[in-house]
Amino acid sequence: MYHYHYYYYCCPNCLLLHCVDETRPVKQTDIPWRLKQMLDILVYEEKQQEVEETGACMEYLLQHKILETLCTLGKAQYPPGMSQQVLLFFSKVLTQIQKPVLHIINVYRPVQKLIRLCGLPNSQTEKEEAQFLFAVCSRVKKDPYVLNYILEVCDLIVLYNSKTLTLSMPLEAFELLLSHLYCPFVPITALLYDKVFMLSAVQRVEQCVLFVMSVFQMSRVALRAMESMLLLTSIPEEETANLLAEETPLCALLAQRLCELYSTIPTTLHPADLHTPPEKNDVCSFPCLDSSPDCLEESPSFPAQEHVDKFFSWLDYCDQLIKEATKVLAVKLAKSIHQQWLIGFLQPQLLQMSEVGVLVHTALLSCSVRHIRSPALLQELVHFLLGSETHHEQRAEIPPHKHTLRYSLIEHCDHISDEISVTTLRLFEELLKKPDRNILTNLVLRNLESRCYRLPGSGEERPGADLDLEESECDPFFTDNEFSGSEPLLSLSSHRDERKSSSRTQIAETVNSFLCLVPQEAKTTQHVQGAGYDTYVHDALKSLKECSAMSSDWGWPDTPKPLDVHFISADFYEGHFLKVLFDRVARILEQPYELNLQVTSVLSRLAVFPHPHLHEYLLDPYINLSPGARSLFSMLVRVIGELMQRIQHFPNFTQRLIMVRRQLMGLEAETMMDHATLLKGVIVLEEFCKELAAIAFVKLPVGDHEHLTAFSP
Question: Which PANTHER family does UniProt cross-reference here (predicted)?
Answer without folding.
Answer: FHF COMPLEX SUBUNIT HOOK-INTERACTING PROTEIN 2B, RAI16 PROTEIN-RELATED
